[in-house]
Write a structure and sequence with these properties.
alpha/beta; Collagenase (Catalytic Domain)
């Protein structure tokens, strides 16, 4: 049982150490969330330019953002479920702007690692169904993020 993380750095700027931290953090988050089956997540690191294009195309917002999550859990009409096969649950994709990680770490006065971890956990929790569309959901999601980051040792 576990979380498989397929990571790709399109910028070529992410260090192996940072990638290891993110993978360990998301594995830890999956344990905290008590995920009881194998799951896969795709994690892609891009530039501000690329994430802005994605934000415009998929969300209709022509602006840079820090993280976008594409959940694949909602099954649509006509999808076939495969009975009996042990296939990992494919949660979806998390796309993080490495440019924004650096900018926001400076802006908030904390480490690059903390901001990278925050955005990865934020995107991961979205894939698990967390949201922040109203105040109650936002409090719940941000409390969970803080709990995971603190437990992992990535506090502000």
């Amino acid at each position: 049982m576990g979380l498989v993380i397929d990571a790709m750095d399109e910028t070529g700027q992410l260090s192996k150490e940072h990638l290891i931290i993110v993978k360990r953090l998301l594995t830890y988050a999956a344990q905290i969330e008590q995920m009881d089956q194998d799951a896969e997540v795709s994690l892609t690191f891009v530039s501000n330019q690329k994430i802005q294009a994605m934000n415009k195309e998929y969300r209709g917002k022509d602006q840079v953002t820090d993280v976008i999550s594409f959940a694949l859990e909602e099954s649509g009409e006509g999808e076939i479920s495969i009975q009996g096969a042990h296939l990992p649950r494919v949660l979806g994709d998390i796309v993080i702007s490495l440019d924004r990680v650096g900018e926001q770490a400076n802006e908030y006065g904390h480490s690059f690692e903390r901001e990278l971890g925050f955005l990865a956990v934020h995107g991961f929790l979205h894939l698990l169904g967390y949201d922040h569309m109203n105040e109650e959901d936002e409090k719940r999601m941000f409390a969970r993020q803080n709990e995971i980051l603190a437990g992992f040792g990535l506090e502000r």
